[in-house]
Amino acid sequence: MRTTVGIIGAGPAGLLLARLLHNAGIDSVVLESRDRAYVERRQRAGILEQGTADVLRAAGAGERMDREGLRHDGIELRFDRTRHRVDFPALTGGRSVMVYAQTEVCKDLIALQLREGGPLLFEAEALAVEDAGTDTPRIRFRHEGREDVLECSYVVGCDGFWGVARKAIPAGLTQVFERTYPFGWLGILADVPPSHDELVYARHERGFALLSMRSPAVSRLYLQVPDGTDPGAWGDDEIWDELERRFETADDWYLQRGPITQKTVTPMRSYVHEPMRHGRLFLAGDAAHIVPPTGAKGLNLAAGDVVTFARALVHQQETGSPELLDAYSRTCLRRVWQAERFSYDMTTLLHRAPGATAFEDRLQLARLERIASSRAAETDLAEAYTGFPFG
Ligand code: FAD
Ligand code: DHB
């Protein structure tokens, strides 16, 4: 089999890239190791930056998002039993975010790809990327019990943190920057209307909590838990009791409970792999970088990478100049590091590390007070949350 761009992975990065290339008249093949149902059900991110929503729209994949997604003009920071709203449009010249789940983005892009785009093979596991440093890179993969080879002009590794693409870059040429955190998030889905019409990020001495949503009828909530926690160890009532404590306010706000339909624990990690390109192999999304989820940046960074790649390839095909492809890693990493910084700041602002001292507690509160009382500090948060420009 032969194609111009071989894409490994049908997460948001791989699927959006296939769509962007299709729209530009460039052929691609997507290889995905899992089956379609698994990819469409995997519960992950929920917030699209304005730039990501705009890209989906421009790609012809925004119709259901605009119908069913929820535009959010702010978030609430909750600490010391008080509430502070951050008003995005007022602080950023009109920017906002969209609550539309990653599962739905993937469903929309898969349907479009199968209807209009090039081949998208499920249960096709990439085994290795070969000859990345040459003009004829290849992906070795297994599909329907047989090994096969996809010959490409370019390979884009969109295969997430546990994928194989990154391994094709010689270790001697790479640098890895990493930090793990001694806590994770216990995430639940619950069949109950969200108790607030915007997201609530709560800092509490017992740990962080986040109230989010999937629709006007389905809540998504997260609790900071110790690293390695087994989600089954938490009973449903225990989860609601703990959420109630961490969201407690001095006013009459209250948390509405409902049946919990899903429980998972996500570890927290910061990770950057440099460079994001080797020869004709390009890494995009979680294959190249991970952020802790507190800033809601993971999916948005993935979108930014593939927009940058698609533009660079179109530029190369239109002008013959490889300058944008050559700048790919540098261009992406500028945005990646801004998101790493913001995600780290949000994580350390709102979580309670095991063994945190009273001094550190007071500093967290002082940082939150600063955001609540200074338009400059609040603007910094609003600009980062609604998104950095796509490079
Ligand atoms: P992925 O979505 O990981 O997609 C990679 C795809 O490649 C997968 O479909 C995988 O099956 C496939 N693949 C892997 N190896 C191979 C192979 N060898 N051959 C073929 N296919 C392969 N972000 C937020 O902003 N908020 C959140 O709440 C949040 N929660 C998360 C929870 C979890 C458990 C995880 C893992 C991530 C979460 N993220 C969250 C991050 C966000 O979901 C990711 O940043 C986003 O999915 C990145 O998209 P991607 O396409 O780069 O990678
Ligand atoms: C969601 C996840 C996040 O990491 C975040 O910061 C906000 C919302 C969510 O899953 O809805």
CA radius of gyration is 21 Å
| Category by helix and strand content | alpha+beta
- The CATH architecture designation of one domain is 3-Layer(bba) Sandwich
Q: What proportion strand?
A: 25-35%
The helix tally amounts to 12
Q: Sheet bearing the most strands, described?
A: 8 strands, mixed
CATH structural class of one domain: Alpha Beta
**Overall pLDDT metric:** 97
Associated small molecules: flavin-adenine dinucleotide, 3,4-dihydroxybenzoic acid
CATH fold-level topology of one domain: FAD/NAD(P)-binding domain
Number of E-type strands: 19
What does this entry look like structurally?
With 391 residues, the protein is an alpha+beta fold. It has a domain at 2-67 and 101-174 and 270-349: FAD/NAD(P)-binding domain. It has helices spanning 12-23, 36-41, 50-58, 63-68, 88-92, 102-116, 236-247, 298-319, 323-326, 328-350, 358-373, 375-386, and strands at 2-8, 28-31, 47-49, 70-72, 74-79, 82-87, 97-99, 120-121, 124-130, 138-143, 146-157, 175-190, 199-203, 209-215, 218-226, 260-274, 277-278, 281-283, 289-290. Strands 1, 2, 8, 9, 10, 11, 17 and 18 form an eight-stranded mixed beta sheet that branches. An eight-stranded mixed beta sheet has the order 6-5-13-14-15-12-16-19. Strands 3-7-4 form a three-stranded antiparallel beta sheet. The chain is globular. The model has no long low-confidence stretch (mean pLDDT 97). The site of 3,4-dihydroxybenzoic acid has 10 residues, from strand 14.
